Amino acid sequence: MAYVTLKRPVLLTILLVVSYIFIVLFSMGMLLSPETKRMGDFFPALFGLLVAARFIALTGVWYMKRWGVELFLITFGATLAKAILLDDFSMLSTAWHVILIVVFMIYYRKMDRNL
Amino acid sequence: MFFIGLFRESLLFAMHALKVNRLRTLLSLLGITIGIFSIIAVFTAFDSLERKVRGSFEALGENVVFVQKWPWTFGPDYPWWKYMNRPLPKIKDADEILERTSTTQAAVFNGYVRKTISYKTSFVENAQVLATSKGYEEVKAFTIEYGRYMTDDEVQTGKAICIIGHGIGEALFGNQDPVGLELKLYGQKVQIVGQFGREGESLFGNSLDNMVVVPAEFLQKYYDLETDEVNPSILVKGKTGVSLEQMKDDLMGNLRAIRKLPPGADEDFALNEVSVLTAQTTEIFNVFGTIGWIIGAFSILVGGFGISNIMFVSVKERTNQIGIQKALGAKNWFILSQFLIESVLLCIMGGLAGLGLVYLGTVIASYYIDFEFVLTTSNVILGLTISTMIGIISGFVPAYGASQLDPVEAIRSGI
Question: Which long-range contacts (CB under 8 A, 24 or more apart) does B277-281 make?
Fold first, then answer.
């Protein structure tokens, strides 16, 4: 199966692996935490979809697809909006996402336009 | 319309694939079923327990401050020997509090005694007898099933009357109206003027169901209500619009004056409030909840790996079919959605099975244990959300791989 058409830079691979681990450890944890449940009945559902969308975005970047970066930007915007609305802003998390976006943008031109 | 048609076609393809491999479908969704079952079962158990605890706290009285000898919470090095020598709250203290303070609506003395009560040949051993002063109906919410509550005059003059709890009434009189009948307490005839409506069990054993409420002025003729054994307390409720903090400040100053404490001296009373206990239990439940989601998260993770694995097998098996579909003009997203829907369907089926098991468990547990377990809507939504999310996450990589296949190579694979 010919999955990857473009060679992925090592820096991108490292950042993506770390991000995947973060998703499994923190986002899953956040989704199931009692605090998230207390925010409202449908909040875990919205948060779950956001986590799934971020996973898809990272997979897109893994395959060197531009839509991956674009989807990541959308999920970052949504996460930021959620953090501001719920007064749950984390400087560390935002800084990490900004680093990812900067690195993704550096390689954006080299990425594939197709799905 | 065109996209809906294609989506429907993807759904039918996915359902067909699941139907063809029934045993594989069943085995692969087992992981998710167990994962969802374990996490939602833990959440359901703790939610039910938390609701019960909160309900019991609320039954103690919201916006009510308890003036007592002992505080409800202690630090690690609390000077218990100082508390030992504190005076106990008295019936007259309640009246004085009400007279002096401007923020309180009611101040009621409460003391508990355990005593056998009887009616003719029937009796209830160790019934909880609550001796209360006037205004109890203002600090405690309850319903009256038969008769009425005591009047202020009856309470102040210490008339030999009582109101019985639903459980006591059931034990002594079945489902009959007991108003007007006379109980025997301390060898005295006590007339029943009312019966409380059913309140349900309380975790702290303070349910009105098993209580007999009598005027404190009556009971103190037969039992000393100013001893540690009766656990005396004064329940103080603030006026409407007055915050608990304002009332506590007012109460603190006036109680110091009532007890004649000089400036700078430590208080010889404790002002306890339900919110302190609620905050403590919230912390405890947060810890239990965290342990619950850690266990559940690992189960879900294992289930997700199982689904991902089975989807890779599914893609490999149908490589030839994918090639043909692509050669006939199927778009990448059509192939992607076909496998993604299959994976999400698989997980949702597993999740529903898990939720079904939890529901069954709550019905069985509630039947055999005297405790109501409830599978809440929020837990159902959470279960389905986790299932969908795991379906998307574990199915996306195999589905995306399938969508990227070269049609010629896929057909040539010949599987």
Answer: B277/B57, B277/B72, B277/B73, B278/B54, B278/B57, B280/B73, B281/B50, B281/B53, B281/B54, B281/B57
CB atoms within 10 A of CB B41: 23
Q: B119 forms bridges with which residues in the sheet?
A: B122
Provide the chain A residues 20-49 that lie in CB contact (below 8 A) with chain B.
Answer: 24, 28-29, 31-35, 37, 41-42, 44-45, 48-49
**In this model, does residue B414 exceed pLDDT 70?**
no
Instruction: Answer yes or no: pTM beyond 0.80.
Output: no
ipTM: 0.84
Question: Exposed/middle/buried for B175, CB within 10 Å: 0-12, 13-18, 19+?
Answer: exposed
Pick the residue of B307, B381, B387, B389 with the most A CBs within 10 A to test the interface with A by mutation.
B389
Which token pair is B412? 């040539």
Smallest Cα–Cα separation from A9: which of A113, A110, A100? A110
Query: Cα–Cα distance between B168 and B208 in angstroms, integer?
Result: 9
Convert B316-352 to b/e letters by CB count within 10 Å (16 or more is b). eebbebbbebbeeebeeebbbbbbbbbbbbbbbbbbb
